Amino acid sequence: QVQVVESGGGLVQPGGSLRLACASSGRTFSIYPQGWFRQAPGKEREFVAAISWSGGSRYYAESVKGRFTISRDNAKNTLYLQMSSLKPEDTAVYYCSSDRTRFAVARRGQSEYAYWGQGTQVTVSS
User: Fold this and answer.
1) Which of 99, 97, 102 is closest to 116 using CA atoms?
2) pLDDT for residue 2 is more than 90
3) Alpha-carbon gap, residue 64 to 67, rounded angstroms
4) Cα-based distances in Å from 126 to 1, 11, 12, 92
5) Rg of the chain taking only CA atoms, in angstroms
6) Which residue has the higher pLDDT, 1 or 92?
7) Rounded to an integer, what distance in angstroms lies between the CA atom of residue 112 and that of residue 70?
8) Max alpha carbon distance in the chain (Å)?
9) How do beta strands 34-39 and 46-51 pair?
10) Whole-angstrom distance, CA of residue 116 vs CA of residue 13
11) What's the CA gap between 25 and 2, in Å, rounded?
């Protein structure tokens, strides 16, 4: 059974940083692209960042480009999202997910992903 567990969320002031982690089990993590998504109150879930199975390519939403960095440690079956220069509009529940297709490129469509975690809350506020 595939399990995905996000961690690292919390309350941070504007301009601050957080690092989210996503631990995955029950599937060969290293051969699937991984992605981060978020859902703000009253809004639909949206794409944040994705990384290819090898880590060689990364893809970001325009709203986070230059501030967020996605990475992966295949030896630890863990996905990360380093978030810097956080803004109040980054407040959301952050989810990680694994692509359905082995060896696919990094991509943004939610329908491409399966095995969602419960999410971790990130609140940016002074």
Assistant:
1) 97
2) no
3) 5
4) 40, 9, 8, 15
5) 13
6) 92
7) 18
8) 42
9) antiparallel
10) 27
11) 6
